[in-house]
User: Fold this.
Amino acid sequence: MPVIPSRFLNREVLLVGLILALIVAMSILYPASFPTLGNFSAILRNLAVDGIMACGMMMLLIAGTFDLSVGGVFSMAGVVAGWLMKNAGFPVPVAVLGGLGVSILGGLINGVIVARVRVNALIATLGTMGIYRGIAILLGGPGINFLPRSFSDPGQAVLLGLQAPVWLMILVAALFQYLLSRNRLFRQYYYIGNNPTAALLSGINVPRLQIMAFTIMGFLAGLSGIAFASRIGTSVSIAGDGAELRIITAVILGGASLTGGKGSIWGALLGVGFVALINNALIIASVSAYWQSIITGVVLVAAVSLDRFMQSND
Amino acid sequence: MLRMTGIRKAFPGVQALAGIDFDTQAGEVHALVGENGAGKSTLMHILAGVHRPDAGRIAFNGQEGIEISDEQHARRLGIAIVYQERSLFSLLSVAENIFVNNQPVNRVGGIVRKELYARTTELLDRISVKVHPGTPVGKLSAAQQQMVEIGKALSINARLVIFDEPTAALTRTETNVLFRVIRQLKDSGVGIVYISHRLEEIFEIAGRVTVLKDGQYQGTLSVTDTSPADLVMRMVGRKGLYQHVDRSIPAKLKPVLEVKGVSDGKLRDIHFSVSPGEIVALAGLAGAGRTELALAIFGARPISSGSIAIEGKVVPVVSPRDAIAAGIGYLPEDRKEMGLFLEMNVAENIAAARLSYFGSWWMSRAKLFETARTYIGRLRIATPDASRTVRKLSGGNQQKVLLSRWLLRDQLVLIVDEPTRGIDVGAKAEIYALLRDLADQGKAVIVISSDLPEVLAIADRIVVMRLGRIAGELLRAEATEENIMRLASMRVEETACR
Assistant:
């Protein structure tokens, strides 16, 4: 018997169907360019950084909250690491730890503002989004180029045909799949998202868990930002711009709800995968990239409307 | 004035109404009673235009065979509902709430505030309510908000006003004010349908009463020809709900819970204790501070002085976590808002306060469901299986799920706030039996209840609160509704003299 009711799995089944249909259609239409190992590896490479962040965002949405500052943290972590190794002359491992440390701190600040000061998550992370973005640009200008090889090589390393960021995403996703389905501490996020008052009155330490979730989100955004900087060998100061909406869209598409309490890591990955696939399909079909946001938007609204429709017929 | 004949309505899987006859005269209060799910709300929703009947005829105000197409139509006909859950905009003013979409406007569509206020005052005067029309509704008391709802009904010149559980959140004094207003409406020739779980109110306010059971019409009686016991019989086909069951109360044991001089913004120097095996009722009027006291004991409300001891040891309780760890469990009055995880299943709800029991690093689903099935069996929770979403259970079964949550932790003290509010008569009896069972097993049970027959039926001892203080204690043997009420509503000077 599933712990998550089958109703929640429907979204995931729907996405698998859409993804398969898209793959089949593209393979028939563009047999030479779409169904190739190179193309699939490119899709995976591009979705890896979003996939890592989507795991954290799914956790937040399950807990009934979200974080708009992930793009800012993403940029800031990359720039801080780049600045530390290039401009301040620190060894690469120290610089990477510095970047991660800053992103953890950024997440912790979000968590404290939301859970302790009790500022609405939308406003709190909208504010810190601006702050983290600004720090990235102040420190890095347009960006920091030609990062040391010892930093960029691991990001470009390939194992079994998959690049390092893809492996990182797989590890993170597997870990979070375990945590959110079987780990007592993380299972509590479902309770918090479902009814925070009842969670508090059941003895669940709601504020502490919220702070933990935001801190983990900060860490994942930083990890993702550093992996991205490593892969392209450059700290781009605006690399994360727009990531927050892209990821929240993907995660909601994957079955999360803004009211909290539901969702799974599978859903998050399928959501990210679907968005990446549409993007790729449009590039191969040489359609303007603007269609991507139109199609993603239509699918998002349609999927959520379908849920509403099915719920009202319950 | 109103005549409904042979009304039938089916929803997927259930015949909600199977041929109901119901009529109301102008200037009459006609009560409608039945358990939850008996079809009272469905019948009234048909009148309000929310549902359309599958069969049957409605005549209203001399018009035969009318079909009420939607809520606007019902309002145009002059039918208004005062809902149990108030549908007010708490940040908007009284006047704006009463004239939601029919505010007086000038030629360019601007609202004429002077006229709006004047018309509001006029309406409120009719029901003798003294509030300024500009007051935000959120600042009013529950009773005053109820009056605003009635004002809304009057603003459409309603010929028929339906009251759906209007007194659920009102004190006795407020109820008296409401009844005065209802009598005024009645005397002015308005027909009134009165739905309530509180049978004693029906004998006070209504002329006739119609009983529904499982969507079936059980007859219409004059209140002079029936009694509460007779009505309960007709509603559920059983007797003796409020019969006190004599339990062998164990010899006065050392108290398991001692509340010593607890005070906060609302509570003043509260002292009381509960022994294992005892059921203590906290009685009092709404606003006497009973829920606040429960929340304070449970660590959900900070206290400024005093202490709480469990088994003789003072325990620092600053959060529900501390209280739970000390062995206290709390079942809130508002189960949906404060107790249940509505979209989660029965098993997950039962497990909520003791997740570690199922493993920390690898939670066992098998154990989760096995445990849930144990409690489903033991408390006879009516659910097809443990993976049923809690939202889909009835109120009584939801309450049993919450009880299971604390039983799983084996708490020493259970505080149950209004355990049967919104629960139908059949399930009430089961909840009473469960609470008695728990006490027999040595739990200390504290029941907060505004329902005096309920208090007298289950309590071994009754602690009466008034204005944040303990007004007195009564043993079951010496307690009557009258002496509880006297303590609960005693004036300040009398308390000082004691």
